[in-house]
Amino acid sequence: MKLEQAAKQLEALGNPTRLNLYRTLVRAGEAGRPVGYLQETLGIAASTLSHHLHRLILTGLVTQERQATTLICRANYPVMSDLLGFLADECCADAACSPASGEVAA
């Protein structure tokens, strides 16, 4: 993962409404959630929800799929895993880590 992509994804998640929306989708699992459910659960206007979903979709964190008249939103788990890996991959790379605790050794 490139630094620029990770920065865009983290920026998108830096908004409290988008972070709450994303966590709702992560909790939903592979089935995802319909847009109507998200709007009701989060208590936000449709236009506001659309704006926030758009930001998450642009960064690849969320996908959408139309099923008949329903728009289903899902967390993109491979992208989420890549972002988490990017954040953790170099943990303690410049210091000795204690394997048992993950803390930096003195």
From TrEMBL:
<feature type="domain" description="HTH arsR-type">
    <location>
        <begin position="1"/>
        <end position="95"/>
    </location>
</feature>
<keyword id="KW-0238">DNA-binding</keyword>
<dbReference type="InterPro" id="IPR001845">
    <property type="entry name" value="HTH_ArsR_DNA-bd_dom"/>
</dbReference>
<dbReference type="GO" id="GO:0003700">
    <property type="term" value="F:DNA-binding transcription factor activity"/>
</dbReference>
<keyword id="KW-0804">Transcription</keyword>
<dbReference type="InterPro" id="IPR011991">
    <property type="entry name" value="ArsR-like_HTH"/>
</dbReference>
<dbReference type="InterPro" id="IPR036388">
    <property type="entry name" value="WH-like_DNA-bd_sf"/>
</dbReference>
<dbReference type="InterPro" id="IPR051011">
    <property type="entry name" value="Metal_resp_trans_reg"/>
</dbReference>
<protein>
    <recommendedName>
        <fullName>HTH arsR-type domain-containing protein</fullName>
    </recommendedName>
</protein>
<dbReference type="GO" id="GO:0003677">
    <property type="term" value="F:DNA binding"/>
</dbReference>
<dbReference type="Pfam" id="PF12840">
    <property type="entry name" value="HTH_20"/>
</dbReference>
<dbReference type="InterPro" id="IPR036390">
    <property type="entry name" value="WH_DNA-bd_sf"/>
</dbReference>
<keyword id="KW-0805">Transcription regulation</keyword>
